[in-house]
From TrEMBL:
InterPro entries: FAD-bd, FAD/NAD-bd_sf, Kynurenine_monooxygenase. HAMAP family: Kynurenine_monooxygenase. The lineage of its organism: Eukaryota, Metazoa, Ecdysozoa, Arthropoda, Hexapoda. Residues 7-354 form the FAD-binding domain. One of its GO terms (biological process) is anthranilate metabolic process. GO terms for molecular function: FAD binding; kynurenine 3-monooxygenase activity. This is Kynurenine 3-monooxygenase.
């Protein structure tokens, strides 16, 4: 069977689903994308879900493969490093990559999704259906039951392959869960997030082209730039603490105590309005295995690996899923999907689990460790060794954000680097003691 006679249903026209449609359309498959929400290009913007995202190397690589990188970067704002705000209003900047000046990009979720949907729609072999929600899947038969809320009809659709790109609460995954030997490890963390904003008129109060962080140990606030000069501010904190701040007075005391400089930047009234009218959103982290069912179904993106957002890798990792699927189709896709899907699970499992763990670790780094001298000392050593031995000593953040190195390899590299530094430190300490002893 040639690709043009094979059909694929993609559930979810979010970031990962629409990018996947572009990849598969290029290969000639007949694609139908079913998205539960209305077409965001026609709908008004909704507050609540992070409105800008950090795009890094893996995401850019995937976008480049379908010819969209340039268009996305035209609409993105480069971020060259972090700017730390202390309680005393002092700031300190830390470049992401001092030697090669690589940066990450802040991109609007909606603009990115619009670019991807429009690109997917241009392929004659892609059909997009909005307000069409998946209700059930019959995996063995490759059948989907979909409710079209425009016509109030139930649609029964069949395809050779069903791809679930339907986010963290994926219905396709729920069906996979009913198959034997499917493992799912799901956890919520006690912290949530709430979005605030700095309008473009006040945007100049923040230093441009940096990711701003207000690290406060147990919690933190960050700000990412938007292309119109405004900023999206996100406060990450325990759900209990959010609950405590339930009046203008408590909010004022809290911000004066922890984020004094941010009051003027956000604006007192806007802060009160935005904070007190919203409730925090929760985080879910989930790992599962396998990602496929026979030659019939596959889950990608958050459906397969929702992670906490502290490494800025959720979307990038989902985009990398599309790259990996495409590479496997190139090598093994001539006959049937079963080898491709099996290899996808084998290839992604270790990497995806590694980035889920790294994302959890990075919350501690961002909200707490960045304020400690040991963090800065390690950064100096890492930068020095990276400059000296660029092919051997790649710091963790750089390998995750600026290369395609498998996430599991990034993690293992960090482990051996830690060992080398510990041994080095022990040797130095011994030399120091021996020298002091000899001098006495
Ligand atoms: C606060 C926050 C900040 C983040 N920051 C970053 C960042 O800086 N960088 C980064 O890389 N990642 C970031 N992420 C993660 C990123 O948002 C996700 O990884 C990414 O959106 C996943 O895309 P997706 O397409 O897999 O899922 P989603 O974006 O959730 O899309 C799923 C789509 O499926 C549709 N759908 C759901 N159920 C059905 C159904 N039954 N039938 C039909 N359609 C359905 C939904 O309507 C939706 O459009 C962040 C996440 C959060 C919460």
């Amino acid at each position: 069977m040639s690709n043009d006679t094979k059909s694929v249903i993609i559930i979810g026209g979010g970031l990962v689903g629409s990018l996947c449609a572009c990849f598969l359309a290029k290969r000639g498959y007949q694609i139908q994308v079913y998205e539960a929400r209305e077409d965001l290009r026609k709908a008004k913007h909704q507050r609540g879900k992070s409105i800008n995202l950090a795009l890094s190397h893996r995401g850019r690589f995937a976008l480049r493969s379908v010819g969209l990188e340039e268009k996305v970067l035209e609409n993105a704002v480069p971020m060259e490093g972090r700017l730390l705000h202390s309680i005393s209003n002092a700031t300190k900047s830390i470049a992401y990559d001092k030697h090669t000046n690589q940066c990450i990009y802040s991109v609007s979720r909606n603009i990115l999704n619009e670019i991807l949907l429009t690109a997917a729609e241009k392929y004659p072999n892609v059909k997009l259906f909005f307000q069409c929600k998946l209700k059930d899947v019959f995996l063995k038969e490759g059948k989907c039951v979909i409710y079209d809320s425009k016509t109030k009809e139930i649609l029964n659709i069949e395809a050779d392959l069903i791809i679930g790109a339907d986010g963290a609460f994926s219905r396709v995954r729920r069906c996979l869960q009913q198959t034997p030997l499917f493992h799912l490890n799901q956890s919520y963390i006690e912290h949530g997030y709430l979005e605030l904003s700095v309008p473009s008129e006040r945007g100049h109060l923040l230093v441009p082209n940096l990711l701003h962080i207000w690290p406060r140990g147990e919690f933190m606030m960050i700000a990412l730039p938007n292309s119109d000069g405004s900023w999206t501010v996100t406060l990450f904190m325990s759900l209990e603490k959010f609950k405590e701040i339930d009046s203008k007075k408590k909010l004022k005391i809290f911000f004066e105590q922890h984020f004094p400089d941010a009051i003027d930047i956000i604006g007192k009234e806007a802060l009160e309005r935005e904070f007190l009218s919203s409730s925090p959103n929760y985080f879910i982290s989930l790992k599962c295995n396998p990602y496929h069912f026979q030659d019939r179904a596959l889950i990608i993106g958050d459906a397969a690996h929702a992670m906490v957002p502290f490494y800025g890798q959720g979307m990038n990792c989902g985009f990398e899923d599309c790259t990996v699927l495409d590479q496997l189709l190139e090598v093994h896709g001539k006959c049937s999907f079963d080898i491709v899907l099996e290899k996808f699970t084998q290839r992604r499992r270790e990497d995806v689990h590694a980035i889920c763990d790294l994302a959890m670790y990075n919350y501690i780094e961002m909200r707490d460790l960045v304020t400690r001298p040991t963090f800065h000392a390690r950064k100096i050593i890492d930068d020095f060794l990276y400059k000296l031995l660029p092919t051997i000593w790649l710091p963790l953040y750089n390998s995750v954000s600026f290369t395609n190195t498998r996430y599991s390899v990034c993690m293992r590299n960090r482990q051996w680097q830690n060992k080398v530094l510990s041994i080095g430190l022990c040797i130095l300490t011994v030399i120091l003691f021996v020298s002091i002893f000899c001098l006495m």
